[in-house]
């Protein structure tokens, strides 16, 4: 009998980046890259594990914006075109590199990979949620939800109705896609604050994933630290992140992804080859961007890079996966001696790390799952729901406010660079509550305005925008998104309060920001 469990959790999220009004939106490529590099490779891995009768249990959050985009006909059509262009480029790369044996080997690998990606995409009828719903139904992957637009809940807690609306809409969106209620939720950025648990309870949530500090500094102090869940006074359980397993992947100094045999992220032919050759495969406006064709391995800290060797990288994957499994085996052995219940190690990561930033990441997950299924391990993979069914007695403790961001607090999302965001959002939240309480029996047209106002507010609340501003990446885009949604909200607010609704403008907003088709503005009303 196994002595304990490992709860491997992948958090899958993309902000709502659907732009039919723009011919070749750069930001839509964020989604396309994640589909090719992260989601489809994971689907292939899960399918192969099932085919090989490997017993496994995983937990995956898929946020409402990502679920919506994965099922969107416009975006799926755009992705299919992107994928076909990738295949076309891979064929040209085989020809271009024919005189360099090592580069040509990589080009052939990319071609085979792209062709296989298309086959998997076709297999699931150009809708990847078909695959994830299958795994959820089979019980090998527990899909959990998130707040509606990945809003950092503690920072909008000043208006409790806004937090409740985010949670309730996240749950409803999940039900609309998955066909059943979610048991768990990924709190955006693992950010927790007092009072959030009671709202989770109201929405039927049974557990959430938290940062280690939420558990280690909980009151009273949990007996087993992060090796067991705790239950909040409201009756919702919290599974805390294990830091040992986290460092082995995330650490800049000791993390596996930094191994010199793995693929170098920052060298892409989109920036290196002549424009007349690469132009059809980058942005239509001539902006150089990543194509996904990267020929070098990390090699070292200098500028000189050696050609990527896929076989060597795969050898390292198995070496690292074996090490990771051995460490969890030792952790479980050590923890089980002093516990009167089986320990559980919770290992949460961003899905997009595995495949996008760490190209070999999905292969690592595959190798780890297969190693975990071997007889020598003292643990099994498990989901939080299964663990709670087997171990229903949980220590009651109040988690400490925290996040998994820098410093363990909320400072990444509210600081001198972005604090203005929340001043404007809070005003909109107050206005939304006001009109939700005012229009108790709206006309059909008023209802549409109120529902669209809810969408625009939630899209403005997304934590992605303040994160981007703090990290100084695509700042102009983030600021534009915040201001656009706030402006649209205020326009709708003015239209309904002054009875000056312009149907054409409303239809345009509904067509562009078409997330949450079943949203009900009354979730903002005071109960």
Automatic annotation (TrEMBL):
Glycosyltransferase is among the record's keywords: yes
A GO cellular component annotation in the UniProt record: extracellular region
Pfam family, one: Glyco_hydro_57
Its EC number(s): 2.4.1.18
Record keyword Glycosyltransferase present: yes
Annotated SUPFAM superfamilies: Families 57/38 glycoside transferase middle domain (SSF88688), Glycoside hydrolase/deacetylase (SSF88713)
InterPro entries: 57_glycoside_trans_central (IPR037090), BE_C (IPR015293), Branching_enz_MT3115-like (IPR040042), Glyco_hydro/deAcase_b/a-brl (IPR011330), Glyco_hydro_38_N_sf (IPR027291), Glyco_hydro_57/38_cen_sf (IPR028995), Glyco_hydro_57_N (IPR004300)
Biological process, per Gene Ontology: alpha-glucan biosynthetic process
GO MF assignments: 1,4-alpha-glucan branching enzyme activity
Superkingdom to which the source organism belongs: Bacteria
Catalytic EC class: transferase
Entry keyword set: Carbohydrate metabolism, Glycosyltransferase, Transferase
Similarity section: Belongs to the glycosyl hydrolase 57 family.
Protein known as: 1,4-alpha-glucan branching enzyme
Organism expressing this protein natively: Clostridium felsineum
Taxonomic classification: Bacteria, Bacillati, Bacillota, Clostridia, Eubacteriales
């Amino acid at each position: 009998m196994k002595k304990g469990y490992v709860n491997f959790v992948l958090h899958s999220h993309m902000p709502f980046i659907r732009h039919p009004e723009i011919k070749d939106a750069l930001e839509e490529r964020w989604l396309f890259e994640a589909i090719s590099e992260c989601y489809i490779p994971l689907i292939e891995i899960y399918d192969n594990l099932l085919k090989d009768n490997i017993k496994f249990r995983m937990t995956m959050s898929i946020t409402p914006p990502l679920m919506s985009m994965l099922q969107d006909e416009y975006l799926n059509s755009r992705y299919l075109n992107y994928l076909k262009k990738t295949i076309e480029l891979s064929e040209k790369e085989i020809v271009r590199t024919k005189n360099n044996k090592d580069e040509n080997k990589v080009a052939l690998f990319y071609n085979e990979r792209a062709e296989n990606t298309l086959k998997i995409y076709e297999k699931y009828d150009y809708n990847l949620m078909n695959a994830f719903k299958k795994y959820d139904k089979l019980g090998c992957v527990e899909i959990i939800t998130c707040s509606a637009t990945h809003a950092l809940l503690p920072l909008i807690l000043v208006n409790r109705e806004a937090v409740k609306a985010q949670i309730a809409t996240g749950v409803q969106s999940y039900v609309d896609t998955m066909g059943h209620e979610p048991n768990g939720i990924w709190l955006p950025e693992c950010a927790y604050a007092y009072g959030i648990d009671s709202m989770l309870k109201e929405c039927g949530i049974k557990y959430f994933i938290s940062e280690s500090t939420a558990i280690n500094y909980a009151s009273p102090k949990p007996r087993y630290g992060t090796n067991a869940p705790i239950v909040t006074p409201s009756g919702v359980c919290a599974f805390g992140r294990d830091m040992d397993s986290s460092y082995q992947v995330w650490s800049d100094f000791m993390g596996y992804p930094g191994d010199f045999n793995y693929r170098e992220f920052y060298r892409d032919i989109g920036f290196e080859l002549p424009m007349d050759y690469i132009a059809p495969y980058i942005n239509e406006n001539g902006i150089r961007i990543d194509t996904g064709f990267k020929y070098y391995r990390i090699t070292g800290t200098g500028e000189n890079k050696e050609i990527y060797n896929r076989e060597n990288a795969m050898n390292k994957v198995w070496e690292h996966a074996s090490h990771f499994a051995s460490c969890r085996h030792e952790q479980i052995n050590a923890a089980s001696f002093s516990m009167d219940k089986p320990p559980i190690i919770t290992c949460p990561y961003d899905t997009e790390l595995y495949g996008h930033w760490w190209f070999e990441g999905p292969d690592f997950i595959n190798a780890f799952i297969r190693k975990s299924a071997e007889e020598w391990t003292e643990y099994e993979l498990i989901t939080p729901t299964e663990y709670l069914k087997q171990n229903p007695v949980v220590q009651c403790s109040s988690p400490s406010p925290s996040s998994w961001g820098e410093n363990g607090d909320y400072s990444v999302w509210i600081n001198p660079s972005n604090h203005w965001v929340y001043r404007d959002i809070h005003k909109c939240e107050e206005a939304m509550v006001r009109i939700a309480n005012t229009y108790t029996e709206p006309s059909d047209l008023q209802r549409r305005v109120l529902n669209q106002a809810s969408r625009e507010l939630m899209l403005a609340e997304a934590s992605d925008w303040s994160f981007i501003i703090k990290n100084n990446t695509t700042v102009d885009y983030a600021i534009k998104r915040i201001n656009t949604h706030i402006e649209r909200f205020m326009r709708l607010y003015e239209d309904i309060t002054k009875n000056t609704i312009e149907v054409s403008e409303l239809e345009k907003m509904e067509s562009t920001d078409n997330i949450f088709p079943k949203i009900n503005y009354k979730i903002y009303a005071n109960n």
